[in-house]
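CORE FACILITY INTAKE
Project code: CF-77B
Contact: R.S. (postdoc)
Sample description: multi-component assembly, two entities in total
Requested service: structural model of the whole complex
Turnaround: standard
Below are the sequence entries exactly as provided by the requester. Do not edit them.
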Amino acid sequence: MGELRLMKGNEAIAEAAIRVGCDGYFGYPITPQSEVMEYLMAEKPYETTGMVVLQAESEVAAINMLYGGAGTGKMVMTSSSSPGISLMQEGISYLAGTQLPALIVNIVRGGPGLGTIQPSQADYFQAVKGGGHGDYYTIVYAPASVQEMADFVKLGFDAAFHYRTPVLILSDGAIGQMMEKVYLPDPIPRRTEEEVISQCPWASTGKPPTREHHIMTSLDLDPAGQERLNLLLQEKYRVIEEKEVLYEKIDCDDAEYVFVAFGLSARICQKAVHLAREQGIKVGLFRPITLFPFPKKPLQELGKKVKGMLVVEMNAGQMIEDVILSVGFQIPIKHYGRFGGIIPTPDEVFRMLKEKIIGG
Amino acid sequence: MEEKFAHPELRTPENLVYKRTDFLVDRPLSYCPGCGHGVVHRMLMEVVEDKGIGSITIGISPVGCSVLAYDFLNVDMLGAAHGRAPALATAIKRLWPNRYVFTYQGDGDLAAIGTAETIHACNRGENFTIIFINNGIYGMTGGQMAPTTLPGMRTSTCPYGRDVGIMGHPMKITELIAQLPGTYYVTRQAVHTPAAVRKTKKALRKAIDCQDLGKGIGFVEVVSNCNSGWKMTPVQANQWMEEHMFPKYPLGDIKVDGELVK
């Protein structure tokens, strides 16, 4: 049955975590995402579902708590915002190298450095190009609504366990803070210890006499072994690119021009599409939902049908690189960005579409 | 399989008085001859065997010489990032409260890069066991200065000896964490003599037993040698350890049953 509620994006993530049977949340306060842990601490799921909620001493500790929990097959997550996610990168690299499932939420704020507490999309490169050291990717989901904040928790955990890989939800301070109606599905019970052991036969859960001991590590001092691991990871990423691409097309069927935008920017561009259509200009919106894997093929196809694209991001031009890699140089592809916590308005991006693409 | 022993007929159950525990993997250790790690590995795994908890034990190895401890300890293991073992252990013990969880860490790992994780896990009163090997040097990376390096002691990053005016003082982190209400049993031992080895085994047992009580961290520091890093023979290293390390890091219990005894 589920239920409808009016919630902040950050609260929706927390509530969804309880409802999907998450085993543990480990976090550290940072604006603008502190509501995730505050909500969990207020809800006390450790008394109902048995979910562990712990405030760590740092983001570094929090991500390594995830690493420990994930290495024992548990469903674990954390959330933070840009500077905190930077601190977690070493741990995320370890999770990828050890092939462990975990969910990491980045409620992005403006940077670089301490930056600002206002929303931003400036962590795109960090999120989709690996982020930490070594050759790896994380699957990245970019929600554009409070509903998707809740939905992508389940989606993220499913992908994390299916591929044994860390998964990121890349959102921003506006979606984290804004309140919207959200449908919450019925709770799924947490897995029993026996279910964890049978579903994660690779995990370090305690060695019965009947099997060899398990070792969770990304270390292999033998170059041939380390290359084998890398080839295995790359093969996994190719499968993910083949099977896990998600995107949304709005008013693209007859569009002559399209916005390409993710997350909050896509919400703004959606309104700009209406403004354009009111003036009889055929504009559409292409919204990547997974940023890795990037929807290369559908965007390439769209590139053959439209006259130009405006990539709107709350950064200096990051996703536009992937758009150009997908579409090529046959049509004009321009970028419009605001930074430092400034959110562009629909009028503004529509004006930029006219200036940079339609009139250009 | 080729018989390794000269008189296999003598290897009968009634003659077997001492054997390698099955909780040590049958493979050569990667440690230098004379190093204390192998002895501590063995004592720890004998405790696991004696207590009958092998199938419900999860261990965490560090970064340092014992990074490969998971190759030798025949229980389920995780290899932590440098210094983060207490964070892993915190999550594992909370997510699997019926498992016995230990971290095995060196001085650089536990008392330098991992100081925050060590102190906060101890302060939260987590219910796992920390085994801390203190040899006053970074062994794995080739003998650099550690937080526990003695004043005047030469290492590759203090080749003229540790000048405390420039490089700071050796840290007695064991005394430090003993002050925290979340530690229940804190002790400092060694493995350079048979008597010391027996005491260390008892200390390890007591520290693991803490997990049955749920009253906080059991913490065993083992002052050990690093004959390679110290550039001495194993015998010289043990003598030097007694003469120089023990005065700074005196052996014995520091906190028992939650009460400071020193």
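Facility notes:
- The domain at 31-260 of chain B is CATH 3.40.50.970 (Rossmann fold).
- The two ends of chain B are 53 Å apart (CA to CA).
Invoice: internal transfer
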